[in-house]
């Protein structure tokens, strides 16, 4: 499956996705464009699945991906146990209409309760 390139080269694109995922984990919700939200969702779901394991190995793997100890601590201390008995589908995308400046379709990516 081909992923969205969003008009960026691979390194800035990966950095954008990681930063959006970090903000999602810290704030439990982030507003962005719809295509970005759809791409970040798959990354976030995989990271939360690792956080559910709660092992030191999983923590190191997530830390190598996110590089943000505050977000990793919240993932393993709060979000992992919260989603322990949920088999997937940890996020939802709510469409919020179009951005005033350029008409881009906006969405809120949030963690489900």
UniProtKB/TrEMBL annotation:
<keyword id="KW-0687">Ribonucleoprotein</keyword>
<comment type="subunit">
    <text>Part of the 50S ribosomal subunit. Contacts protein L32.</text>
</comment>
<dbReference type="InterPro" id="IPR036373">
    <property type="entry name" value="Ribosomal_bL17_sf"/>
</dbReference>
<dbReference type="GO" id="GO:0022625">
    <property type="term" value="C:cytosolic large ribosomal subunit"/>
</dbReference>
<protein>
    <recommendedName>
        <fullName>Large ribosomal subunit protein bL17</fullName>
    </recommendedName>
</protein>
<dbReference type="InterPro" id="IPR000456">
    <property type="entry name" value="Ribosomal_bL17"/>
</dbReference>
<dbReference type="GO" id="GO:0003735">
    <property type="term" value="F:structural constituent of ribosome"/>
</dbReference>
<keyword id="KW-0689">Ribosomal protein</keyword>
<comment type="similarity">
    <text>Belongs to the bacterial ribosomal protein bL17 family.</text>
</comment>
<dbReference type="GO" id="GO:0006412">
    <property type="term" value="P:translation"/>
</dbReference>
<dbReference type="Pfam" id="PF01196">
    <property type="entry name" value="Ribosomal_L17"/>
</dbReference>
